[in-house]
């Protein structure tokens, strides 16, 4: 069994999809859902699904990213994960933390990377006049949103779309893409998953 820990910051809809998919012949099982926000809605959803949870409030570590990360490492290492999935985890991780899990930590990002790393991806794609948007799952490397691509899903940008409408359209695809990538990745297969709507 491949042990999978999931880091979240918010509602955790991607996390729910990952956990729901990890049954039957899936090589992975969820061993921990952890958040930097004790109020994150996803923590309760994980607990309802029977997955152990942990919260380490980053606000207790002002200007101390390393201190936050060493506190986060305690429950994380206790869970002995083989793979860490970032699923709407909104803290930037230090190179030290990333290196510790090199090749074993993956992230979903709401753009067609390498376009639009960072925040406000949908507003930026609309402002640029792009015809397509989407989401990318990639290996996490020290450079933000820049690791090797493991999967991508595309959606059209329609006339009149605002960022919220586009985000909702992309999120539907995130919920298809991330479980598909994790299934492959947990089986040791890094062939990219490419989804068209
Ligand atoms: C998702 O759209 C995810 O791609 C994005 O946050 C949302 C989390 O939603 N992640 C990032 O922006 C990472 N930089 P969820 O909590 O419902 O899964």
Automatic annotation (TrEMBL):
Keywords: Purine biosynthesis, Transferase. Its EC number is 2.1.2.2. InterPro entries: Formyl_transf_N (IPR002376), Formyl_transf_N_sf (IPR036477), GART (IPR004607). N(1)-(5-phospho-beta-D-ribosyl)glycinamide binds at residues 12-14. Pathway: Purine metabolism; IMP biosynthesis via de novo pathway; N(2)-formyl-N(1)-(5-phospho-D-ribosyl)glycinamide from N(1)-(5-phospho-D-ribosyl)glycinamide (10-formyl THF route): step 1/1. Transmembrane segments: none annotated. The record marks 145 as: Raises pKa of active site His. Residues 3-182 form the Formyl transferase N-terminal domain. The active site is at residue 109. It is an enzyme of class 2 (transferase). GO terms for molecular function: phosphoribosylglycinamide formyltransferase activity. It holds the Pfam family Formyl_trans_N. (6R)-10-formyltetrahydrofolate binds at residues 65, 90-93, 107. It catalyses: N(1)-(5-phospho-beta-D-ribosyl)glycinamide + (6R)-10-formyltetrahydrofolate = N(2)-formyl-N(1)-(5-phospho-beta-D-ribosyl)glycinamide + (6S)-5,6,7,8-tetrahydrofolate + H(+). Catalyzes the transfer of a formyl group from 10-formyltetrahydrofolate to 5-phospho-ribosyl-glycinamide (GAR), producing 5-phospho-ribosyl-N-formylglycinamide (FGAR) and tetrahydrofolate. NCBIfam families: PurN. Belongs to the GART family. PANTHER family: PHOSPHORIBOSYLGLYCINAMIDE FORMYLTRANSFERASE (PTHR43369:SF2). This is Phosphoribosylglycinamide formyltransferase. It comes from Paracoccus nototheniae. The lineage of its organism: Bacteria, Pseudomonadati, Pseudomonadota, Alphaproteobacteria, Rhodobacterales.
